[in-house]
Amino acid sequence: MKVSFSELDLKQLTKISQWITNGKWVEELIDICQGISLSVPNQEFPLIYAGVLLARNNQVDNAIKVLRLCQSSVFGKTLAEYLSETHSFSKRVKTFKEAKPYDAWMQTEIYQSIRAGVLEMVKHFAKQNPPHSLDEPTIIDIGPGNGILTVEIVKQLQQVYPLRGLHLILIEPSEEMMALAIQHCQASIPMPVQITPLCNCTLQSLTSKDQKIIQEHQPIWFINASLSLHHIPRELKVPNMEILNSISTSLLMTEIDENLEELEDGSPELIHTVNEIYSNAIQEVLNINSASVLDKKSCIDSFFLADAITVLKNIQELRVEHWISNSQWQDVAKYAGFKVVKTTPIVSSIPFFTLELKNQPTSDGLN
Ligand SMILES: C[S@@+](CC[C@H](N)C(=O)[O-])C[C@H]1O[C@@H](n2cnc3c(N)ncnc32)[C@H](O)[C@@H]1O
Question: Is 177 in the pocket of ligand 1 (CB under 6 A)?
Answer without folding.
Answer: yes
